[in-house]
Every structure is written in structure tokens, then in C-alpha cells.
Amino acid sequence: MSNKKSKQNDEDLIICRCEEITKKEILQAIADGARDLRGVRIRTRAGMGLCQGRSCERLVRKIISEELKIDLNILPSATRRPPVRPLELQLFGRDDDGIKE
Amino acid sequence: MALKSNLDVAVVGGGVIGASCAYYLAKAGMKVGLFEKGDIASGSSGGCDGNIMAQDHQPGYDTNLTIISNKMYKELLKELDWDIEYSEKGSILVIETEDELKFMKDRMKEQLACGLPVRFVDKDELYEQEPLLAPGFLGAIECASDAACMPIQVAIALVRRARSFGAEIHTFEEVKNIELDKKGKVSGIETIQGKISVPRVINCCGAWAPFLGKMVGLNIPIEPRRGQLVVVEQVAQVGHRKISEAHYIVAKFHPELTEGTDSDMIKYGVAFVFEPTASGNMLLGSCREFAGYDTRTTLPAIRAIIKRAIHFIPSLKYLHCIRTYAGLRPYTPDHLSIVSQVDEVPGFYIAAGAEGDGIGIAPITGLLMSQIVLGQKTTIDVDPLRWSRFTQG
Prior knowledge:
CATH topology of the largest domain in chain B: FAD/NAD(P)-binding domain
Number of helices of chain A: 4
Helix content of chain B: 25-40%
Distance between the termini of chain A: 54 Å
Structural class of chain A: mainly alpha
Number of strands of chain B: 19
Largest sheet of chain A: 2 strands, antiparallel
Distance between the termini of chain B: 39 Å
Number of domains of chain A: 1
Radius of gyration of chain B: 21 Å
Shape of chain A: globular
CATH class of chain A: Mainly Alpha
Largest interface: A-B, 28 and 35 residues
CATH architecture of chain A: Orthogonal Bundle
Oligomer: heterodimer
């Protein structure tokens, strides 16, 4: 019984804090056909918030790897898209802003 | 030897168009198999914004398609039982110059004749509604029926419902070949898993439709046209509905009126689009460029998009960009999609080529395709969408 209880609590854990996505929602996404980080992201929004998966990516990878028995090393990373951290829009408007690709 | 299957039709492509075709065909009682090389909505439907917008279309057939499709979205909300983040908040096209004003007011008469609920919003009302707009604009055209949705959820919801009607969903299963019988009729497909017999194939591969076309000897004149977008952090809403610029409509139909425009805007096909999403983020667009199948975002185009956005809504400059992304719009030479049988290859059908309108017209496209396959009378004349317009002079 104590095991069941801890599992229950485990599923309520918030994995993606920006979008408040729980482990249960991530497991549901995998059951619905998600096979990678992108699949989880589009089904749950995990990793779509302000930090863009910087804190939850490792946890989500681990859950996918465990659920689908895929070696962590071969599980693809999330698509990297600029910017690497949130940038004020006005920085893009100048030509001498030093922003490089 | 092809594996025997009881499939009536193979839908190839798991974006909104393939999902819609699968849904309407399965609902009509056909045994559908949907085959997608990646995940659901992993191509253009996962790299776009969620427009169900009629006011940026040519008044006439093109506008009618979206009007019908938008009505269908409202029915789908009940049928799909899934949150597709649909909202009908309307959209406005902001007018900056006297030339644009005249052009847009004339155009409005044609739009009204199509039954589109458009009206002119004068300067005072515009600033009352959108106080964050930069000063100096002359007014706007408002279309009350324009709507927005979350394309990925639309595809997921349609696929789920298609499955409940008996459709088989084969994601991560790329189609490698299409088999024809001695008479040149479709007899099966070959996926990475093996051969499957099936008498009909529907090409819903969007920008990738030409690759599937080649498998049956067709040259489909669809080209990938890249659109890049900027995601802005979640803040209390800066605007509550879609705002874009009249300039873009004018530039499309009267390029001579746009002389003196920023050269980067022309180079990357930039037009201001501001879209608040259900999540509280805002999307900034847009651009249209031919860059092959490269889905990366590029700094010059992103810069041009952001500069244009700040020109319209200056306070955006203090907000943060959290991500950029891009997708490939399936462009056709006449800007209309192909929703058609292919007479020279019996059993082969095409539903692709909606460029930036695929989300808006996904429901009507799926319904029309199911009617074409079943030989039923179509909801709207499909002659303008026929494949043969590209094969006959």
C-alpha cells in the first residue's frame, strides 16, 4: 500500500514547472504515441515555457527512456532553436546589437 | 508479395490535412490507414501559426472555402471533444497610408459580397480597442469571424477521433514506394515495415507532396516556402486578437504601391502578424521565402520580423523572445491547393498545396476529399482545386 501511495505521489510531481506539467501527463503523452521530447512537448506543452525545457528536459528524457526502454544515449535531443536564452525584442531591432547566429 | 490488408485507403501524411482526410473518410465508413514518417504534426502543422483567417484571402472562391471551413471548425469542437484552443475573436488589418486605405475600402465591398463580416474601424475606435498600437495609423479593417486555433492539437484531435472510427494510425512509418498494377492503378504501398495492399492512396504530404508524386510518375508543382515565427514570453495580454497589416494585402496585389519599403522586408517577404495564443504567449510573424527544405530560422529574417512588429506595437520591445521556429508552407503557382483525384493514376489522390492556409481549410479539405473518394456531390465546386489544371494547358 505504501508503494502504491508513493507511485500516486510520483505521478502528481510537476516535471515542467514553467507550464506546470505533471509526470502523469507526460506518461499519457507517451501512451498516446510520443516517442521523443518533441512528441511529449507537442502533446503536453512540457518544455514550451519561459525556460524552453532547460530544467525539465533531462527529467522528460529519463521518463521517455524508462517508459519506452530506449537507451538515453540514442534518444534524440529537443530541436535547438535560437535564442539560447530569452532576449528582449528591442535587441533585435538594432543593427549594432552584436547578436550573431 | 504485399501483405493483405482490409484497408480501403491509405492517407499519407500526418499533418492537419492528412488528419482531416483520415477523419472524414473514417467517419464515412471507410477503412483508413494513416501513414506518417514522423510523429503527428511533425512537419508544417507543427511549424506554423493557427490561422483560420478569411480576410487576407482573395474575395471569391478562396474566401468561401475558409468561411465554410470555419463553420466546420465549430461543429468539430463538439465532435472532437478535445481542446483545440479555438477562439473566434476576429482579426484586424491595420492601415498605414492613404493608398492602402482606398484599396482596402474598395476590397471590403467585394468581401461583403462574399458574406464576410468585415467593417471599417476608424482611427478613434482603433486606438480605443488597441491602445498599444503606435500612433499615426489611419484605421483598420476588422473581420469578426476570423478565428485562431492550435494546429498541433487540431491534428492530434482529428487523428484520435479517426482512430475511434476504426482508422489505423501508423506514425514513424515512412512510405517508401507506391505499387501500381498492370493497368497503372494503385494497388499498394511499401512502408519501412513492408508491403501493404490498398487500392487508394491520398497524398497529404504538404511541402513533401512532390516526393510521393514521383513514386507514381507525377511532377507535382508544389514548392516549400519557409515561414519563420517568433514566440514572445507569456505576459498579461498585449492585444486580445490577431493584428496584421494591410500593407501585406496591398503588396500582394499592388506591388507598385509599396515602393520605398524596407529592402529586408521585401527580401524575406515580411509582413507584420501578431497573434496572441491561448497559452498567453504571443506569436510574431511573418515571412515567406524559398529556401528549399531548410527549416532553420535565420537571424536576418527574424530581425526583419521583430523590427516590423515593433513598428506597429512599440511596447513589444521590452518583452522577451523565448524561441523562434520555422515551417514549410506548401506553395502552388496559383496559390490554390490541390484537392483532387488524378485521372492518369487511378486510385491516387492529392490533398496538398494550401501554402499558409492549411490550418484554416483543413476541415473542408478533408470533407471534400472524402466526397471525391466516395463519388459524392461535393459541398463546394472542386473544379478550381483539380489536379488537371497543372497538366492541361
